[in-house]
């Protein structure tokens, strides 16, 4: 059955049947990559970049590049699978067996509860920093509701437009702040030659291995469909889309590392956790004034709010597809089956689930058992995603021309080994730490 029978045709007006061949024409269609990349750029990425910059200068800048490359490889694989096979990533995931589908569904449910609380709380922390004395809970709740309303009443085209605006804000504030810092660089001396300094190992793992919100990568196949990309004719545009997106978002993390290195390296000041971003903003404000502090915080807020709106939309689509697969017992659905849409009951149920139940965790301590289960599932998700993609991109489900080359297989193998190690380290720390 064709994918058009499974997902509602959300084709934007003006999408041509034959995509352009020149670079200028292709760049006009760049968009879904920004959505998935911006969705994955959250406080965690900025925190680890700022901690690394504070502790080691720019010697770990190479780790950000490697991390962005890994996300590129995985996202490009998801897009290539969809355009080559006409199947969503979750349909491909199901080919690995019911165990994979059930795991995916369980992870989605727990992810919605814990992530929904964590990301709105982080957004609220930034808002309180901008407006001291205001209510943390009120900002957290209003952030979640804002994401809920934007997704409930909006569609993909609105989501992409909003993401581009937020990325523009981030570009001006975060990258602009880094340029100002470099233009006013002091006498701070720190290493810039790529290396692995003593004591940097766990910082490297933190930059490479954050599992939070990693499931949103799998939303890419739904977003490129909504963009109007239907088959392998769009393959080159998809690759350009993902490349541009991760170059830009990688620049954000690099900029934060530069800011932290210039302001705090060698100062004896240490930062940790999400509150470290506020501390970094305070240090920036002390040097350049309160307006500069505000500009930096607005950029951080933009990064975090993209990590609310994106998952609210993408994960709701994933849950809807999961419900469809379970209802059909893994078989191809009848050709007249109603396609899934943002108006689907399952979509709106999950949108409600990721918004409102997590608010309870803002008022009460998170149940330890749920956190441990979520952590265990999260630590295992990325290696499973990479392994499933490795299987799918070497299968006969797609033409030989679209399958992995030996080089790509090697890269996927290294990614799997990396995430197995990262996941094992996280589980070990949870159990024995």
From TrEMBL:
It is a multi-pass membrane protein. It comes from the Bacteria. GO terms for cellular component: plasma membrane. Residues 1-23 are annotated as: Disordered. GO terms for biological process: iron ion transmembrane transport. It is found in: Membrane. Its main location: membrane. GO terms for molecular function: cadmium ion transmembrane transporter activity; manganese ion transmembrane transporter activity. Residues 1-11 have a biased composition (Basic and acidic residues). Keywords: Membrane, Transmembrane, Transmembrane helix. Pfam families: Nramp. The chain crosses the membrane at residues 29-49, 55-74, 95-116, 136-153, 165-184, 204-223, 244-271, 291-312, 346-364, 370-393, 405-422. This is Iron transporter. It comes from Virgibacillus phasianinus.
């Amino acid at each position: 059955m064709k994918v058009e029978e499974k997902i509602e045709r959300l084709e934007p007006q003006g999408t041509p049947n034959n995509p352009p061949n020149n670079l200028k024409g292709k760049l006009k269609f760049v968009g879904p990559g920004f959505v998935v990349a911006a969705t994955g750029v959250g406080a965690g990425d900025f925190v680890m970049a700022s901690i690394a910059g504070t502790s080691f200068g720019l010697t770990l800048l190479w780790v950000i590049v490697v991390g962005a490359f890994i996300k590129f490889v995985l996202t490009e694989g998801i897009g290539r699978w969809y355009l080559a096979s006409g199947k969503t990533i979750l349909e491909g995931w199901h080919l690995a067996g019911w165990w994979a589908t059930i795991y995916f569904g369980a992870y989605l449910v727990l992810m919605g509860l814990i992530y929904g609380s964590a990301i709105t709380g982080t957004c609220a922390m930034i808002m309180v920093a901008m407006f001291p004395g205001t209510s943390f809970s009120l900002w957290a709740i209003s952030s979640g509701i804002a994401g809920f309303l934007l997704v409930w009443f909006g569609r993909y085209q609105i989501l992409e437009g909003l993401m581009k605006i937020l990325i523009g804000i981030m570009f001006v504030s975060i990258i602009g702040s880094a340029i100002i810092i470099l233009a006013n660089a002091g006498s701070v001396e720190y290493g810039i030659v790529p290396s692995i300094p003593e004591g940097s190992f766990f910082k490297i793992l933190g930059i490479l291995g954050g599992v939070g919100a990693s499931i949103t990568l799998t939303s890419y196949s739904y977003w490129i469909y909504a963009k109007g990309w239907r088959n392998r004719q769009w393959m080159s545009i998809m690759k350009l889309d993902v490349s541009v997106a991760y170059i830009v978002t990688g620049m954000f993390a690099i900029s934060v590392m530069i800011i932290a290195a210039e302001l705090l390296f060698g100062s004896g000041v240490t930062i940790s956790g999400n509150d470290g971003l506020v501390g970094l903003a305070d240090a920036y404000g002390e040097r350049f004034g309160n307006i500069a502090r505000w500009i930096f915080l607005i950029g951080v807020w933009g990064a975090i709010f993209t990590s609310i709106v994106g998952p609210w939309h993408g994960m709701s689509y994933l849950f809807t597809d999961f419900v469809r697969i379970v209802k059909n017992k893994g078989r191809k659905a009848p050709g007249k089956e109603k396609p899934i849409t943002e108006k689907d009951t399952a979509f709106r149920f999950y949108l409600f689930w990721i918004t409102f139940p997590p608010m309870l965790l803002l008022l009460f301590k998170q149940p330890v058992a749920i956190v441990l289960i979520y952590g265990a599932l999260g630590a295992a998700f990325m290696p499973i995603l990479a392994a499933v993609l490795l299987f799918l991109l070497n299968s006969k489900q797609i033409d030989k021309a679209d399958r992995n080359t030996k080089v790509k297989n090697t890269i996927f193998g290294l990614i799997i080994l990396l995430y197995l190690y990262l996941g094992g380290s996280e589980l070990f720390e949870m159990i024995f730490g």
